[in-house]
Structures are given as C-alpha cells and as structure tokens.
Amino acid sequence: MASNVNPTVRRRRLGMELRKLREDKGMTAEQVAERLLVSQSKISRLENGRRSISQRDVRDLCDVYEVEDRRLVDSLMQMAKDSRQQGWWHAFGDIPYSVYIGLETDAASLRTYEPQVVPGLLQTPEYASALIRGALPETAPADIDKRVQVRMRRQLRLSETENNNPEIGPLRLWAVIDEAALRRRVGDAQLMVRQLEHLIEQSEQPHITVQVMPFAMGAHPGVNGQYAILEFPDASDSTVVYIEGVTSDLYLEKANDVQQYSVMYEHLRAQALNVDQTREFISDIIGTYAGKAK
C-alpha cells in the first residue's frame, strides 16, 4: 500500500462496508453485539469509523454476516490492516482533534464558518501561537509549539505543489469569517497586521475564497457558531459536517443533517461581503491596526 494511506478515511470506508453487510443481512447492531458478546456501542463505533478496527473484528463480523466471497473478506481485512497505520499527525503525539485532521487531509473541499478567530488553515505561526496561549492558558510552551507545528503542517493541503496529498491536488477552501474574528486582537497590533495581510494574500489564490460577514448584517444563519463541511473526491466517502467542541467534537454524516448545514452555508455566502468587498474591508481593518502599531 502507498505510504500516504490515511487511517481515518480507511476506517470510515471500512465502517461503511461493514454497515452495508449488516443491513443486507437484516440485522440490527444490537443483534450483532449479542452474537459477538460485545457492547452495541462498539459495533456503532466500528461502523462510523470512530474506533480502530482489528482484522479479528473484521473476521468475526464477516462470520456473523456469512460472507462467502473470500476476495471481499480479504479486501476488508487489508483495509483493517491499513486503518491501523499511523497518519503523519501521530508523530506529534496525542492530538485531541486527530480524527478531524485525518478527514481534512483527504478532503477535496472544505467550507467553513468561523465566528471568533481566523481559520486555522489561514493563520500565521505567530497568530496561532498567541491564539493557543490565550485559549489554553495552562498549556505548556512545548505543547503550544507542537500544536502550532501541526497547524502549519495542515496548511500544506493548500499548496499547489507542496501539499501532502498530491493525488487529489490542493484543498479547495471556502471560508466565511465573522467581522468579530478580524476585530479581536490576538497578540499585538503588529501581529494582527501581518495576519490580516496574510489573509488577503491567501485569498488571492484561485482555490481559496474568503468572505467576511460584517456586523452590519445583523442576525444570520451562522449565529449558532462555528462549523465546517468536508467533501471528498471518492464518491463512497460521505460528506461530513464538523462542529468543534471544548472537550469533544461532533461529526454529522446523515444526509438530512448535511443538507441542512449546506443550505445554511449557502445563505451565509449570499449574505457575506463578496470577494472584492472582503479584501477592501480587511484592508481598512489593517489600517486601523497599523495606526495602533506606531
């Protein structure tokens, strides 16, 4: 197998295949759990790709589903083996949002709404460091550095020639950012000038679109908070809505949930400033910060 196998995506694909086998057999997750003497939650986590799956798990499930096609069983066993490989992010130790990184690494497009901060993929190292220090005041300096390194590594997905998934090209990013994220000073004024200039520079790339949602717009479909929609090049991989939490994250994959968030995002894009207006708007804010930096 290729060295850039993504264990997160492999687990998702394997989970979908196993769920399909169960449904074709007409069994519930509870019935399967009873047959294998395991908890129902284990079966659910295996099927949604949130839990590492062993080749023994696959073998046992295929026995329960009476799968006779040896080639299919071997293929699923290989997927289980690949899913236990480590992604590049594991080299940095325990990363709390490693599932998300795995999805982002293999995604073809990402639509995100950020109400409070500049999106991580568009942050400068200095902004990221100051942001993490402020958000997690009890974090050790070494852990802050590690988080910044991971964030910068993630940004390779935006590069035309240096992204870490050359088979699918650079990530198509569409970011709607609330005005609050631009007005909120992270670090000093000079740092904010550099961050907002970087934001404009990134927005000039053909595969990156940035729009600002100004305060003047009032109430809008994003007032409930941050979320991201990830889409994948392989049709077998379902679109995922990601909602970041303090102690745990939420991943939505049901068609109805994805549809609601997608419609909400279309309203956000329609109500936000267009690309040219956004650059002018950010430039004006840069002028304000530049005056304070003198």
From TrEMBL:
<dbReference type="Pfam" id="PF13560">
    <property type="entry name" value="HTH_31"/>
</dbReference>
<dbReference type="InterPro" id="IPR010982">
    <property type="entry name" value="Lambda_DNA-bd_dom_sf"/>
</dbReference>
<dbReference type="InterPro" id="IPR001387">
    <property type="entry name" value="Cro/C1-type_HTH"/>
</dbReference>
<dbReference type="Pfam" id="PF19054">
    <property type="entry name" value="DUF5753"/>
</dbReference>
<protein>
    <submittedName>
        <fullName>Helix-turn-helix domain-containing protein</fullName>
    </submittedName>
</protein>
<dbReference type="InterPro" id="IPR043917">
    <property type="entry name" value="DUF5753"/>
</dbReference>
<feature type="domain" description="HTH cro/C1-type">
    <location>
        <begin position="18"/>
        <end position="72"/>
    </location>
</feature>
